[in-house]
Amino acid sequence: MTENRDVVCKAEYEQPADELEEQVAAVMAEVLGVDQVGRRDSFYDFGGTSLAAIRICARIERRLGFQVDPAWLLEYDELADFAEQIRLGAE
């Protein structure tokens, strides 16, 4: 069951800024069971765990073809920062 983002996260929703952020947000929302993830939303606000980080990174790797280290998500827990780490890792 998908939960409404606003029930779990009190921050104002900020739309993903580009295609990579949109794709990563979709994966995060799917794994975390929420309807959407904004660019300044923290992975931890949605109850993110190390297992969820591994699942998110594995799905991103399968769908987008980028190597993604789960430690990036644990350290850079906001969507925009995590997507930036993926960009930097892809270079």
Automatic annotation (TrEMBL):
Keyword Phosphoprotein among record annotations: yes
UniProt keyword terms in alphabetical order: Phosphopantetheine, Phosphoprotein
InterPro entries, sorted: ACP-like_sf (IPR036736), PKS_PP-bd (IPR020806), PP-bd_ACP (IPR009081)
Gene3D superfamilies named among the record's database cross-references: ACP-like (1.10.1200.10)
Domain of life assignment: Bacteria
SMART domains linked to this entry: PKS_PP (SM00823)
Pfam assignment, any one: PP-binding
Residue span, Carrier domain: 15-90
Protein name as catalogued: Phosphopantetheine-binding protein
Gene source species: Kitasatospora misakiensis
Lineage: Bacteria, Bacillati, Actinomycetota, Actinomycetes, Kitasatosporales
